[in-house]
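Sequence only, no structure available. Ideas?
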Amino acid sequence: MESEKKLILDVNESPKEIGQWIILAVQHLLAMFVACITVPLIVFNSYEVGQGFANAGAKVSYVGLNGQSFASALIAPTLVAAGVGTLIYILLTKMKSPVFLASSFAYIAPMCAAISLGSVPLMKDATGALVAASEGASVVAAYGNIWALPIGMALVGLVYVAVALVVKFAGVAWLNKLLPTIVIGPVIMMKFACQLTKKLGIPTVISMNTIMVDGTGMCGACRLLVGGEVKFACVDGPEFDGWEVDFDQAIQRSRLYKTEEGRLMLRLQEGDTHSGHCGVCS
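Reply:
I predicted one. C-alpha cells follow.
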C-alpha cells in the first residue's frame, strides 16, 4: 500500500535531489574503504611461516622484489581497478543501479591460498638485505605468487560471464530458487524486506533466531505463525519462508515483556536508591 511506503528511494527510483546524491555517495565511499583497503591488508599480511623455520606458525607480510610491502603497494591499483569497473558497470546499466564494484570478502580465502603457491620465505642477511630463508632461520617476509591473483580473478570473471549469459536466455527464476534471498536482522526489517521481495516475486528465507531465548522450545518465547500454523523458531526453524510468516503477530508478542524488562532494568541501575514504586519491588 502507498501509505506504508517509508523508503527514501524505491527499487526503480534514482536520487532527484543533490542531498540524496551526497548521502548515497558517502555511503558508497565508506563501503569502498572497507572493501578496497581492508581486503588487500588482510590478503597480503597473511603469510604463515611453515615448519622448519625458527618462527614457524607466525604471520608475516608479502613483499615485492624491492622489499616494498604488497599490502600498501596494491591498495592504489585496487582502488583504480574498482573505480574503472564501477564506471563501466554504471554505463552498461545506464545509471539505473548506482552500485560501487569493489573487492569481495568472499575471495579472501582463495586469494590467500593462490598467492601462497610457490611463495618464497625471506630472511635478512648480515647487511639487512632480504634473501631466501635457510632452514632454521627466522622468516621476516615472503615473496608471493602475485600472478596467481589476476589469472584467478580473470577466470572468476569468465564464470560470471557464463552465468550472465544463462540468465539472459533462461531468466532468473531458476537462480532465485537455487539461491533464494536470505534476510536476517530485526523483525521489523525482515517484515518490510519480505514485503518488497514478495512484490518482486523473489523467494525469501528469513531467520527468526532474533526471538529465540532458551533454544529448546520450552519457554515458548519464539512461537510464531507461519502459513497460519503455530511454529517455534528454535524447534521448527529458525529459517522460514518469509512470505508465510505473520510478522505483525511476532512483533506484538515481542512487546509482551517490555514493561517488566524496563522496571527490572531501572531497579538494577538504581540499586539501593531505587524508590520501590515500579510495581515489582518489595
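The CA atoms of residues 35 and 103 lie 5 Å apart.
Hope that gets you unstuck.
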